[in-house]
């Protein structure tokens, strides 16, 4: 519990500007609110997918809770992280993510994750912070900027090495992170479309046994066409969400 509280203090400030190291920039064909739903709704497995890809296991995630400012949502995620460094005295270590998001005044979705390892030499000396900004670029789309930084709480001899390796690893994994984000957005859009079509079809049937109202049927077709256009060119990312 004490560790969770310290994490919240560490990452309490959520700015809209990118952190010093940009790891990826790309377009997402969805609004900030739809992206939030795709990545962080109660039933989304997005965070679990990221952790599994990063060789983490035994994840336990708290539900998001609204912070005292009334707009920031925050939760703590815990898991065991595999350590590949041959010089490490341990092969796994507990890891804690402080995860938060909010919608800024300009409509941008800001997502920030502060990560801390424990039970390793010097692990208490630094925190890795990732910030993703989904800024509305045009109707139904966002420009995404992913950035990161290593925040040191005290000086130690391997500080420069830790920072350079963390930045290198983040940039190396950026393409897969981008693909996973786009995959979950695409998957969520398809699921929402299926729900819409099912609802409108049910309303069609309510018009009378064996009959369909042409206007209502047209609305189903329009819904399909709208999502098809909006998600055009992103179907290849669906596999990343599985």
Question: How are the secondary structure elements laid out?
Answer:
Layout: H1 2-10, E1 21-28, H2 32-40, H3 46-53, E2 56-61, E3 65-66, E4 73-82, E5 92-103, E6 109-117, E7 126-138, E8 141-152, H4 159-172, H5 174-205, H6 214-230
Antiparallel strand pairs: 1-8, 2-4, 3-4, 4-5, 5-6, 6-7, 7-8
Helix pairs in contact: 2-5, 5-6
Description of the structure:
The chain has 242 residues and is of the alpha+beta class. Helices cover 37% and strands 30% of the residues. The protein is built from six helices and eight strands; from the N terminus they run H-E-H-H-E-E-E-E-E-E-E-H-H-H. Strands 1, 2, 3, 4, 5, 6, 7 and 8 form an eight-stranded antiparallel β-sheet that branches. Helix 2 crosses helix 5 and helix 5 packs antiparallel against helix 6. It is globular, with a radius of gyration of 21 Å.
Series of H and E elements: HEHHEEEEEEEHHH
Residue stretches low in confidence (pLDDT < 50, at least 5 long) are: 1-12, 209-217, 229-242
The dominant shape is globular
Query: Over all CA atoms, what is the radius of gyration?
Result: 21 Å
Please report the total strand number as a whole number.
8
The biggest sheet amounts to: 8 strands, antiparallel
Mean pLDDT: 81
Strand residues, percent: 25-35%
Q: Could you tell me how far the N terminus lies from the C terminus, measured between alpha carbons in angstroms?
A: 32 Å
Which percent bin holds the helix content? 25-40%
SS-derived structural category: alpha+beta
Number of continuous helical runs: 6
């Amino acid at each position: 519990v004490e560790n969770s509280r310290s994490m919240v203090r560490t990452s309490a400030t959520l700015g809209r500007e990118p952190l010093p190291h940009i790891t990826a920039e790309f377009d997402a064909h969805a609004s900030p609110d739809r992206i939030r739903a795709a990545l962080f709704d109660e039933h989304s497995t997005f965070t679990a997918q990221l952790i599994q890809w990063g060789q983490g296991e035994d994840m336990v995630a708290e539900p998001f809770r609204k912070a005292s400012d009334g707009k920031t949502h925050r939760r703590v995620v815990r898991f065991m992280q595999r350590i590949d460094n041959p010089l490490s005295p341990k092969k796994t270590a507990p890891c804690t993510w402080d995860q938060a998001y909010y919608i800024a005044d300009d409509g941008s979705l800001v997502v920030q994750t502060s990560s801390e390892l424990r039970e390793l030499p010097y692990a208490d000396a630094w925190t890795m912070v990732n910030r993703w900004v989904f800024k509305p670029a045009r109707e139904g789309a966002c420009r995404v900027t992913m950035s990161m930084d290593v925040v040191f709480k005290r000086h130690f001899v391997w500080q420069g090495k830790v920072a350079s390796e963390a930045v290198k690893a983040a940039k190396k994994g950026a393409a897969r992170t981008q693909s996973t984000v786009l995959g979950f957005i695409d998957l969520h859009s398809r699921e929402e479309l299926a729900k819409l079509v099912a609802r409108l079809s049910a309303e069609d049937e309510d018009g009378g046994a064996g009959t369909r109202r042409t206007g209502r049927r047209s609305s189903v077709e329009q819904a399909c066409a709208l999502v098809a256009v909006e998600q055009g060119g992103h179907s290849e990312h669906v596999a990343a969400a599985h």
